[in-house]
Protein 1
Amino acid sequence: MKFLVIPEDFRNDQHLLEPILTALLACLGFPRPKLRVCRDPLLGGIDEAMKLERLEEVINRHWGMVDVFLLCVDRDANPHRRARLDEIEMHFTPRVRFLACEAWEELETWALAGLDLQGPVRWAEIRAERDVKERHFVPLAASRRLTAEPGGGRRTLGREAARRIDRIRRLCPEDFDRLAGRIDALRQPES
């Protein structure tokens, strides 16, 4: 199966999504998973990523080359985000296989879940934090002197986190593990 991940903005998100989701597909037993992050068009933010017209543009551009379209956005403490993502999924189903997920609260949370964190911060605090990127991820990247690399440390930290998919699933059940279950269900024959 060929997966196209549609992020809010690929410029940073690709460095987390590509290694983590490729590792998830392998863990779920997809033989030689093929996953690409959508770079064309650049959506450039949550508002654009949630517009049906922009998503239609992505689907039309990649039609026939992709088996599953996967929209991955931040939840950003928006309790209505899931309902909107469900609406988007319904719009595209059954025309294409389209899954939408929201990372609580930001994609960087998934990377942090796969890493050994130092200091007094407990996981429950990170999971409840609205601004995970600013409060936890950026300081970690800075402490490891990774901010000058592509994605501000996301390349290295995303690859490291991808080695611990089971841990990410366990620590992020509402979003990442739920996504894993939905992707796994794609392998089942349609009835």
Protein 2
Amino acid sequence: MSQDPSVSATPSPPPVASAPEMPDHVYLVSYPKIVFLYPTVLTALFCSIVMWAKGDIPTNEIVAQQSRNAQIVMKAAVQTANEAPSSAASADEDAAGSMGVTPAVDAVAASESAPAADGADSDVVSVKIHSYHHVCARIFLIVFALNMVVISFDFPRTTSLTWFFAITAIVIGLWFLFSQNPGLAPKLVQGLLAIKPWANASFYMIYTMIMLFLYMWVMISRRFDYWEVKGNELLHHHGFLSNLERFSAPNLRIDKEINDLFEYMLLRSGRLIIHASNERRAIVLENVLFINGKEDRITRMLGALQVRVRTDKE
């Protein structure tokens, strides 16, 4: 009698989750704070592209400004002529009579010239003023200011929370002030819009190229000063000829600190404090990028080393 194969078959074991790959080494590099200026660099690059695509600073605004200045000079000259003494005016009338020119003819000439002036005014008014260069300059300055605040001050979790409540209180206060004084907000907005900074595409591109040049040299310099954590030792590579310092790693202790919340948000950076067994001073590495992943890899690597050591003793 044949046995049902479905009954005799042994159940397959559940799939075992594969352990994460054990790293052989972890590189630790301390960067200067200039790396946190990349939002300003990206903004400058964006503004340079926009200005280049739009044709740089519009010439019609320059022409309109020159026309307005010319009209101001013309009006000032006319007012100066009208304020001349009446005796000089009567002398001009006598001289005109002697030459056979009547005041009516002067009035007709003035009436004919008036439409031309009005037409010039209408032409100046009809010039369309573009403001995209002002918008680009305002965006660049705002991002640059916020970026400089981030790298100038430290914002721990408690300080960031304090700033959050302070900004919230200021916003509520401004909302109450503007609600009680409806005419104050338009005046404030008009005052801010009256500030019209501008810069051409060359300025933004030159700023971007300078920062990229500095970033390139920062990356090159970090190739001559970095730390390497291995399973049994800690190595410090430094110098042009790659000088090497060795520290024992089995009793290595690493502390992680995140002193600035905004720097952590920009590049996941933080501070690593390394305590080597044969070194009295603590090794402090500032601005280590993507610090959580590197700490996790070092912990797994050193933890596996401790397990192997205990197994060998047994």
Protein 3
Amino acid sequence: MMNIDRINARIVQELKLDGRVSNTELANRVGLSPSACLRRMQELERSGIITGYRAVLNQTALGIGCIAYIAVGLSDHSKNSQKAFEQAITSSPEVRECHNITGSYEYLLRIETSDLVSYKTFHTDVLGTLPQVNSITTYVVMGSPKDERS
């Protein structure tokens, strides 16, 4: 496991804010030479702390007008039932995140669709047809005052 010292923590924080920052600018921000900064970034990547870089997308421009979180309860709590549910749900493009959780439900899904009508179709034609699903509770996102994924 790699040591996350104060400088590595600053590198990670700066990259979270701007993953496209140049190595020279990043080095300036964290107080390193460009070569030392590059070595540290490469080591953070090799160690698996940095697993990738991504683009932040404008959801509205992409036609995503409805985001919902869905708490899913399964009728059977066996490993086979969970595996079957996970396999079925991962093939659905509307499912952007799937988390196995503790509490009253087994899964929390993050769904993105173009509108509420499309969400209803997903709810009925995908979730509603899975034999493992016992309960569905939907939380429609009305706004996101803080979302560190974007």
